[in-house]
Records
---
Amino acid sequence: MQRYLLHIVLFLSILFLSDSVVWGISVNAMEDTTYTISGTVSGDVQDDVTIDISGDYETSTQTVSDGSYTISGIPHGSDITITPSRTGYSFSPSNRTVNNITSNQTGQDFTSSQLSYSVSGSVSGAIQGGVTITVSGDHSATTETASNGSYSITGIPHGANITITPSRTGYSFSPSNRT
């Protein structure tokens, strides 16, 4: 082993000390260098958000309970897009693009907002205005119909199972509720 080491040192010394010949050694270590992308999802949901990486490098991961995520192994010079997703939520920004990665990328953060919906309808018949509309189940709300019998309830979370029940003293309604 020592004999080979001596020959290598001697050979390299000759290469670099030679005046008449220009010797060059080209090493592109950057081609094998990889980097890490990390960030946090905050807002209405933090855990179990899927983080997709697309572009020159593709993979995905899930956020942990505090909303953080880390993806390693992204090759030097990659152009990627980071996109969060989870059913029932929107994210701001909707994605982030990082071009020509030459270092670790921290602070690739997103804010989540739960999607919500509205339910509207109308009551017809002998009485239209002043009917109490009650929402129960996974979401609770109450409103009254307008004089033409119309109503609207907003802010119902994505995936909520609800029952809508009309009521007014002295009146019965058919159907008595809707789910």
Note: Confidence is low (pLDDT under 50) at residues 1-23, 25-29.
---
Amino acid sequence: MTLRWAGALLLAGCCVLFGIQAARNLGARVRHLEAWLSAVRVCVNEIGFGQTALPGLMSELGQQFSQLRPFFQSLLDTWSPWGDKTLSQLWRARAQTLSLPEQDRLLIGELGGVLGRYDAGRQAESLEYIYKRLESSLVKAREERLKQSRVYAALGVASGLTVMILVI
């Protein structure tokens, strides 16, 4: 009987943890998008005023935003102006590996097609457009987090209790 209780408690605990983790993932998406918004703002400022070269800009962004450091570090490690792949191709490929929904990954992938491609004015305009779209995505992510995080946590607890009752 004791083993049955222990098994039921473990299963219930796992269900609760799954629900809590799903709720935490919603918060992680919001934090990730906030970091990207800040990074785009830095890009607009640097392109408009600082005229920092792309490798220096990516290095600076990686230092300023710890969440984005792996992204920019992998770009710096693999990109070469004389390589067979362009920065845009590498950026888009790297953006597809982010743990974000598809629409967010595509939007972040568009950044790579803008940086270094146009003159400073056009880059700033394009970055402002992407910034507005990211901002819209962030608003939706915040709304989803508010609505869904409690639901996921409650479902985790409810399914855990249900499994526990069924096992006992």
Note: Helices lie at 2-50, 54-64, 69-78, 87-95, 102-114, 120-167.
